[in-house]
Amino acid sequence: MVKNYLLIAIKNFRKQKLFSLINILGLTIGITCCLLLFLFIFNEFSYDKFHKNGKDIYRIMRVGNLNGNRQEIPYVSAAYAPALMNDFPDVIEKAVRVMRDNDLISYNNISFNEKNIYLADSDFFSVFSFNLIRGNPGTVLKDPNSIVVTESTAKKYFGNEDPIGKILQFNKSQQLKVTGIAKDVPVNSHLQFDMVVPLELLKSSRPDWFTNFSLNTLFTYIQLKPNTDPALLEKQFGGFMDKYLGNFFKEIGQKMELIAKPLNKIYFAANAFDSVKHGNKKMVYIFMSIALLILLIACMNFINLSTARAAERSKEVGLRKVLGAVKKQLIGQFILESVLFATLACFLSIGLTELLMPAYTHFLGYDLPSFLGNPWFYVCIAGIITAVGLLAGSYPAILLSSFSPIESLKGVLKVGKKGTSFRKVLVVFQFTVSVILIICVVVIIKQMSYIKNTDLGFNKEQTMIIRFDNYDIASKGHQFKNELLSIPAVQDVSLMSGEPGGFHDSYPFEAEANPAEKYLFNTEFTDMDFVKTLGLKIIAGRDLSDQFGTDSLQAALINRTAAVKLGYTPDQAIGKWIFNTIRDSIKRTIVGVVEDYHFASLKDPINPLVISPGKDNRLALIKIKSADPGPVINNVRKVYSSIAPGYPFEYSFLDERFDQLYRAESRQESVLSIFSIIAIFVACLGLFGLASYTTIKRTKEVGVRKVLGSSVQNIVLLLSKDLLKPVLLGALIAIPIGYYAMNKWLQSFAYRIEFQWWMFALAIGIAITIALLTVGVQAIKAALANPVKSLRTE
Amino acid sequence: MIKIKDLEKIYRTEEVETIALNKLSMEVKDGEFVAVMGPSGCGKSTLLNILGLLDDPDAGSFIFNGIEVAKFNERKRADLRKHNIGFVFQSFNLIDELTVFENVELPLIYTGVKSSERKKRVDEVLDKVQIMHRRNHYPQQLSGGQQQRVAVARAVVNKPKLILADEPTGNLDSHNGNEVMEMLTDLNEQGTTIVMVTHSEHDARYSHRIIRMLDGQTVLENIMV
Ligand SMILES: Nc1ncnc2c1ncn2[C@@H]1O[C@H](COP(=O)(O)OP(=O)(O)O)[C@@H](O)[C@H]1O
Ligand SMILES: [Mg+2]
Asked: Is B215 touching A (CB cutoff 8 A)?
């Protein structure tokens, strides 16, 4: 019986080439989207699941209050770990501190500035399950002068030689012996390292780090004893914090809590400002829904085309009934057919997925684990085949099998009104989804271009960023600056703690305006050339200057927002004092107010900012005169190499830095653009099928009308009208939904565009135009046909 | 074999109500060959559909092989039908996508006959209707007469007790028509009961008895000798 069904399915498939191709193509596209998304999602949800002790591992985090928002801060001081071990010996099995660092590593005469070095406690490899190819997890890091490298890092230094026992130089000062080789860190780990060095190594150079509770520089992970309730531990953290930090809290006037965050919650933590890898659960769900919607659109094509063709198969259905088939068998037969389509499409999708994999991983920026060996992949495939088979097959199956055998045989089926309006509902849905996606893309493109073209309030062109990421350059920053200024093409140089778009600390301030209040303001510690280099506008008072000998200790600039926050007009603010309660020992006088500029992303409102001279040079900004930066960069490189010999010269540009802030949004823009193109393509594929079907069905009518003198335009209109109405309706329904969704999206930007009617008009226009072309081609073909020929088809 | 009494069938559409069968009673005995005649629209096909359990009557009684089947549900009717009744239509009604062999095999699939047995039986009947050489052809590749022979083969492959034929020669020329009538006669001689609707007095002469209908009622019965 099944063989017979398959036979007829295959023969039908061959007979109805156009419909079969449309169905297969649509389903293949839909399923491929789902598979690609599945692989991505599977990887996202597999993060940090490979650690054997995973369910007992927690990251200690401080919880503070930032401008009234609860903020979890992953950085704690190195003093926490021993204190925790000491105070809770019954609960905590092990504590591991992990600090990401950036160090110069040399071997013979090769050296690299390694950015992914972890300084960690010796239990690192026994708490976390990063596989070691060589070395014992319990002991590899016992010796403070040992180092564990990953397989590919070892290749980089030692080629094919055996790395074990080799000596690597650490920041040109310490000798580390390779004691272990780790497998390259899997993609699905929030911790990513190339080398691990014992934290002990720093004990001699930075003893203060290990005892001072307020130098928060590293992550601390604890492994609890099996079957311990972390909530019980967290309850005692209040007392713990008071014990060690009570005095400090009194000093700064605010308190912080401590929590234990489960390892498997770290990856999806929202707005965690640590530098580890994070995923965005919301985006994952949104993309997943869109992929499913595209698959649904493809299924609807299948339903539409199958029901439209129902009449053609009525003879077969009638006959089978006459010969004794019951409804159940017929439903089974048609579902089997759609399952067959789904299976075929699935196989094509697997091939297509393989084919797209390189482009896809390039887009994602990382390799996904091979999917053919992943059993869940096959579960997913089986799920898709079943779901698509049932979804796409059941309506046509029920419809077809419900015909009475006599009517079926006569071929005068009344699929009639009910079938047609059902089909229209599906088309409405397909175009609702498509137009929503187009609206999203239009709004996102507009917002992104708004962001790119907004005046940020400073000059970001032709400005190089050089980070002070090693001791040599950091300690000789001023020499570096002076030598740079002697290069003719260099216009200005300023050393600072954070570039616009980069990280800005926040400190509690006291101010003359209300000495009893603590103001949490962002800070910029810099030199006297900051305003000049960035081209900021002074709106009151004067710039910082060397001419005033006291400026470096006693002067500060604030931005307009800070003045407003303190209750002043810019002019009123001049001459008032302000006091950084942690960094400074004396008050500073506000000597100038700068116009607000976007020192953070346009997602955030401009916060109060205090710019003061200070020695916290984390980078240099170099403003270049000439349009061609090539030769200047070479000169800068020479200066850099002479001051920090052995360190690789690395630089970036300020305008690129700003683009990075919106990387997530640009990615959304590209993903949604692709999705919306696919959605409208699949929807139009179905529309094309329906159009060609209706024109075939109405060939005779068209012939008669033409004989009776109807014009080509009239006929095109007649044939198109019916199909375009649901398209238009779908587009109209999309407006409020698209508005709602994008309004929500725009809320994440403090600076954003307003909705304009043309955005919706454009989206609808695009959809209608494409639909019109799809339907119109068929209609025109029918309208131009020779009426004699059309009449003969009867 | 068939005994119907006061059978009624009324078609209702939005505007009109058509009484297709009006308290019709008749009987067909085992092994009989009955021809049904009458003007177009008098209800012959409706009667045949009900006899074939393709449709249910609105009122009246229909006893098939001693069982009252007028109130049978679809499932039971399908079951009874596939084991006992074969159909031959004016327009052949072969499935275009299937070969001659596959078309004839279809009823056996629905009665659950095993594959090897099916092959044997299909080849047997194809041989009998002399279409064996065309077993792998598609219906469109055959002449009308050949198609109708395939349809007859399909009707008898399950060895039904009753064959219902609705104008089986209506689309055939007289030569092919006669061939089909010969086949039906042979089948009848081997014990199969046949009820045939026809417009042709010539064809009707192959039967034992003619039932003449008018406006949904039987008006006359001729016994042939
Ligand atoms: N499905 C139907 N709906 C409405 N009227 C029908 C239907 N089938 C048949 N009829 C009507 O019932 C009457 C009998 O039809 P039918 O049995 O096909 O006649 P015959 O086969 O003798 O030509 C006719 O008047 C026909 O119009
Ligand atoms: Mg008839």
From this structure: no
User: Which of B75, B97, B106 is opposite residue A323, by nearest beta carbon?
Assistant: B106
Predicted confidence at residue A415, as pLDDT, reads 54
Task: Report the residue count for chain B.
Answer: 225
Say if residue A522's pLDDT is above 70: yes
pLDDT at A627: 77
Indicate which atom in ligand 1 lies nearest the CA of residue A407.
Answer: 1
Q: Answer whether residue A458 is part of any domain.
A: no
Q: pLDDT value at position A363?
A: 86
Identify residues whose C-beta is under 5 A from ligand 2, the ion.
B 45
A594 and A711 part of one domain: no
Query: pLDDT tens digits for B73-84?
Result: 888 888 898 899
Between chain A and chain B, the number of residue pairs with CB atoms below 8 A apart is 60
- Residue A749 CB partners (closer than 8 Å, separation 6+): A447, A451, A602, A603
Which residue among B87, B97, B102 places its CB closest to the CB of A322? B87
Checking if the pLDDT of A792 tops 60, the result is: no
SS3 A725: helix
Whether residue A506 sits in one domain with residue A644: yes
**Confidence class of residue A784 from pLDDT cuts 50, 70 and 90?**
confident
DSSP state at residue A83: H
Q: In what order do the strands lie in the sheet with B209-214?
A: B85-89, B162-166, B193-197, B33-37, B209-214, B217-223
Query: Under a CB-based contact definition with an 8 Å cutoff, are residues A268 and A281 in contact?
Result: yes
Ligand nearest to C-alpha B11: 1
Is the Cβ pair B95, A319 closer than 8 Å? yes
CB proximity B78 to A under 8 Å: yes
Strand, helix or coil for residue A557:
strand
Tokens at A568, concatenated: 């002043």
Burial of A164 (0-12, 13-18, 19+ CB in 10 A): middle
Q: Are residues A647 and A770 in the same domain?
A: no
Q: Which two tokens stand for residue A389?
A: 């088979």
* Judgement on whether residues A386 and A258 belong to the same structural domain of the protein: no
User: What pLDDT score does A68 carry?
Assistant: 67
Say if residue A525 is in the same domain as residue A616.
yes
Q: Please check whether residues A74 and A217 belong to one and the same domain.
A: yes
User: How many whole angstroms from its chain centre is CA B183?
Assistant: 13
Per the structure, the count of domains in chain A is 4
- Model confidence at A791, pLDDT cuts 50, 70, 90, reads low
Structural domain boundaries enclosing A494: 463-661
Q: Is position A525 within any domain?
A: yes
Q: Is residue A426 part of a domain?
A: no
Taking the centre of ligand 1 as the mean of its atom positions, its distance from the CA of residue B11, in whole angstroms, is: 8
Q: Is position A714 within any domain?
A: yes
Same domain as A653, residue A562: yes
Q: Give the residues of chain B that fall short of pLDDT 70.
A: 224-225
| A412 and chain B in contact, CB less than 8 A | no
The Cα A52–Cα A131 span in angstroms is 11
DSSP A142: -
- Distance between B49 CA and the closest CA of chain A, angstroms: 8
Report CA-CA distances (Å) from B80 to A161, A401, A718, B111, B112.
83, 19, 49, 10, 14
User: A419 pLDDT band (50/70/90 cuts)?
Assistant: low
Span A231-255, mean pLDDT? 86
Indicate if A541 and A551 belong to the same structural domain: yes
Give the confidence band of A794 by pLDDT, cuts at 50, 70, 90. very low
- Residue A541 bridge partners (DSSP): A592
Average pLDDT (A696-700) is: 78
Residue whose CA lies nearest to ligand 1 atom number 24: B41
Per the CB < 8 A criterion, the answer to whether A624 and A464 are in contact is yes
* β-sheet bridge partners, residue A69: A66
Which is more confident, B145 or A11?
B145
Q: What average pLDDT is seen over chain A? A: 88
- Of the candidate ranges A114-118, A124-128, A374-378, the one whose mean pLDDT is the lowest: A374-378
